[in-house]
Amino acid sequence: MRYLPLTRADRASMLETIGAPSVDALYSDVPDGALLSDPVDLPHHLGELQVEREMAKLAAKNIGTVSVPSFLGAGAYSHHVPATVDYIIQRGEFLTAYTPYQPEIAQGTLQYLFEFQTQVASITGMDVANASMWDGATSCAEAVLMACRATRRKKAVLSGGLHPHYREVTETYCQYSDTKVAGRDGHPEKQATANELDDLIDDQTACVVVQYPDVFGRIQDHTKLADACHAKGALLIVVFTEAMAFGAVKSPGSFGADIVCGEGQSIGNNLNYGGPYVGLFATTSKLVRQMPGRLCGETVDQDGKRGFVLTLSTREQHIRREKATSNICTNSGLCSLAFTVHMSLLGEDGYRGVATLNHETACKTADAIDAVAGAEVLNDSFFNEFTVKLSKPAAEVVEALVAKGVLGGVPLSRLYPNRDDLDHYLLVAATETNTDEDIADFASALKEVLA
Amino acid sequence: MSFTTHTGNRGLVLEEKLIFEQGEAGRCGVDLPKPAGIKSRLGGLDRDSDVGLPGLSEPQVVRHFTRLSQKNFGIDSGFFPLGSCTMKHNPRLNEKVARFSGLADLHPMQPESTVQGALELIDQCAHWLLVLTGMPAIAMSPASGAQGELCGMMAIRAALDARGENRRRVLVPESAHGTNPATAAACGFTVDMIPATEEGRVDLAAFEAKLGDDVAGIMLTNPNTCGLFERDVRKIADLVHAAGGYFYCDGANFNAIVGRVRPADLGIDAMHINLHKTFSTPHGGGGPGSGPVVFSDALAPFAPIPYVVKTTDGFKLVETADEKDGTKPFGRLKGFHGQMGMFIRALAYMKSHGADGLRQVSGDAVLNANYLLARLKDKLSVAFPGYCMHEALFDDRFLKDTGVSTLDLAKAIIDEGFHPMTMYFPLVVHGALLIEPTETETKESIDQFCDAVLSLVAKAQAGDAEFFKNAPYLTPRRRLDETAAARKPVLRWMPETV
């Protein structure tokens, strides 16, 4: 077997050094009957070529977003990832390293984490960021738990504009910690007002969670909501699913948010059918010791040279055990490297430039869709995603579009399978990867399907 | 010969500033088409200030991260015997297939009809894991080992709630990984520690004495964090079941038994599998991981959404908790459907090895660890007697009166060109050194490591403590001041203010 270097002679000589008669003898503590004498009922080993063929066959049964005009968003976005990103993250010194517990031989990982934290803090407009979480949804849940710790309160208010997966994960995380989750159902035709959640915020409220832009694509100023939260001693958590948006819109930090967290997949990471992604998590200096997850900090070495280490680990499970701020251990290291490399390539001009391109492409797409009979774009404001009201059920329309070679958005019924009032709404995203031809193909296919 | 250079660089080890200290306005590493000048529809919230990102060209970015990579030690660099972490070779084939178009470019919300290959792949990966563990059900979505634990313990909590029982105490051995108690606490349980025996295993009498009708279950790592197989594991399972509780097994050390022992045959109710350990998906400097959880029939109905089912019409993805099929999912743990990129790599790894190769994986991992144990046991102090599984545990008695600590020794090992072992874990022995060579190491590399460790031990015992206190000497950075970092945390770069 190509990955296993021991030879028969090695094994014999090693057993002799050990003083054991066989490898099976090393398993003498396994209870009677539990040690298998034969391989389990699965195929035997294959060469590289054969494995590659089997995997290619599975891949060929799918329609990839790159192969057809694709307008899917809802928390995962197709962006161009420069070739440099994939080259850097496949360098073995990054790919095959462990969590940087030995800082003398992990300065590469530690320095990029420090740069990552600085980039995340910069785009969100916050003081500090951690070294990543698993994804946007778990970041949101961890933010709520953090707000409960910081305020010593047990109630979270979730906006109806929050992505339903984020809401479900948050509810799942809160259900066994006596944290009450309140909120309203959102609707793409009912514009949320600045004070719609005010009556839910009381002296027991730890936090209010809003999404910006919201799950229907709308963009709203949350300054007044921040004030309403702070007046009651609650924290404002601003969640996002599209990290590219902050190149075009004001940062959540400018509203007075206390925690800003969400999904970083858009920058540097492939769609990967939903994972692995990278959760971003930022907050104020005041709250840093309540943060979950790993933090990288600057220090000096024995010779006085600048270096980086993991720090404030007394918050974490390996030190605090059952009193830790979170059980998180492994996070999304390599995905945060992809984010950092992509963001470094973009820089100020590239980040803001690609955000503008996204917005302009979405504006063109919205105009083309709105012109189709039976389709109405509902959003007054959006970044690169908006909701369309259709004359036919959206799930059927999407299937019919597939037959015409277009991946035409996400039906709200897919995101909200338990609601029956959202069948006719379609969530459409457009990014810099969509060409004018893609938009025209989408619009003409939609016209045929709705006719 | 020691001297300083003008640049601060030392041959191939190049000093590298932060990207924030290198940027120039006007530089950019991407080329974009000119904007069309369309009037914005951003609700009046157009960004009106700079983000504060530096501008760099592509060659600058490539050089920056290449230089950073050269300050890192990975499995590709050398021997990496970090106990409890299973740092085995990461095959590049797995990286290649994970990037195939038709896999890497799939959107999680595409219609099912367009992702039948992806759902089949998840189903295949699940099938391999189920056969290897002998268990009847699996949740694929947990993002890591720690989230897998959360998944297992939430299922236990849901099962107890369904029984209408308010059991809140979870028994956890002292030697457990820190995520175990942290996870139990996150599910609203209280943690009750079980002491270890002189032989590094669960103290069966103490365990039995702690059982009662408020016990929700036990979280037991097997093989345990001392690198030992819990030989009373079946008795533990029977006792906890008789007391009305469940058996959560931490599967972090599955590499020692994969293909040879099925956890189902040991009486477990739930176990997470770290795909980034046993199944070789890269650790990536701290993730991403993946932690699917296998379940017994008792817990299977409570598994979280989403999950894949095979029907006569092809594969379906169940994304709602209200399917009328007798299941009672405890909720959702993650956005979308789990770490697909890791399932692809793990499946390629399993297909490459096959049932025969995976059996060889565990056998060689255990053989390598016992060989290392045999080579070091006379000069170091073995924590517990007998054969070990995939990792060997020592305590620091052999360093007594030398003035050298476990940490000092580890730092000297770095200068010898190895990644050190896990230190000070598990907590049940003093100054622990936990060494896991894995099956992908040659006898030669283990011999070289053992020779180096033995020479350092001789040096420590000869009274050269000062040498160890200041190690490492040859690394890009020497020992870093962690106390200063925590006292006044600097967690980001800030522009110098005038």
Automatic annotation (TrEMBL), chain A:
Role this protein plays: The glycine cleavage system catalyzes the degradation of glycine. The P protein binds the alpha-amino group of glycine through its pyridoxal phosphate cofactor; CO(2) is released and the remaining methylamine moiety is then transferred to the lipoamide cofactor of the H protein.
Description of how the protein assembles with itself and partners: The glycine cleavage system is composed of four proteins: P, T, L and H. In this organism, the P 'protein' is a heterodimer of two subunits.
Domain of life: Bacteria
Example GO molecular function: glycine dehydrogenase (decarboxylating) activity
UniProt protein name: Probable glycine dehydrogenase (decarboxylating) subunit 1
Keywords, comma-separated and alphabetical: Oxidoreductase
Ranges of residues in domain Glycine cleavage system P-protein N-terminal: 1-444
Pfam families, sorted: GDC-P (PF02347)
Annotated EC: 1.4.4.2
Enzyme class at the top of the EC tree: oxidoreductase
Keyword RNA-binding belongs to the record: no
GO biological process: glycine decarboxylation via glycine cleavage system; nucleoside metabolic process
InterPro entries membership: GcvPA (IPR023010), GDC-P_N (IPR049315), GDC_P (IPR020581), PyrdxlP-dep_Trfase (IPR015424), PyrdxlP-dep_Trfase_major (IPR015421), PyrdxlP-dep_Trfase_small (IPR015422)
Family membership: Belongs to the GcvP family. N-terminal subunit subfamily.
Recorded catalytic activity of this chain's protein: N(6)-[(R)-lipoyl]-L-lysyl-[glycine-cleavage complex H protein] + glycine + H(+) = N(6)-[(R)-S(8)-aminomethyldihydrolipoyl]-L-lysyl-[glycine-cleavage complex H protein] + CO2
From TrEMBL, chain B:
Pfam families: Aminotran_5 (PF00266), GcvP2_C (PF21478)
GO molecular function: glycine binding; glycine dehydrogenase (decarboxylating) activity; pyridoxal phosphate binding
Domain of life, per lineage: Bacteria
Catalytic activity reported: N(6)-[(R)-lipoyl]-L-lysyl-[glycine-cleavage complex H protein] + glycine + H(+) = N(6)-[(R)-S(8)-aminomethyldihydrolipoyl]-L-lysyl-[glycine-cleavage complex H protein] + CO2
Keyword Aminoacyl-tRNA synthetase: no
Listed InterPro entries: Aminotrans_V_dom, GDC-P_C, GDC_P, PyrdxlP-dep_Trfase, PyrdxlP-dep_Trfase_major, PyrdxlP-dep_Trfase_small
SUPFAM superfamilies tied to this protein: PLP-dependent transferases (SSF53383)
Keyword terms, alphabetized: Oxidoreductase, Pyridoxal phosphate
GO CC, one annotated term: cytosol
BP terms from Gene Ontology: glycine decarboxylation via glycine cleavage system
Keyword S-adenosyl-L-methionine annotated: no
Domain named Glycine dehydrogenase C-terminal: residues: 364-461
Alphabetical list of PANTHER family matching this protein: GLYCINE DEHYDROGENASE (DECARBOXYLATING), MITOCHONDRIAL, GLYCINE DEHYDROGENASE, DECARBOXYLATING
Its biological purpose: The glycine cleavage system catalyzes the degradation of glycine. The P protein binds the alpha-amino group of glycine through its pyridoxal phosphate cofactor; CO(2) is released and the remaining methylamine moiety is then transferred to the lipoamide cofactor of the H protein.
Protein name as catalogued: glycine dehydrogenase (aminomethyl-transferring)
Species the sequence originates in: Thalassospira alkalitolerans
Phylogenetic placement of the source organism: Bacteria, Pseudomonadati, Pseudomonadota, Alphaproteobacteria, Rhodospirillales
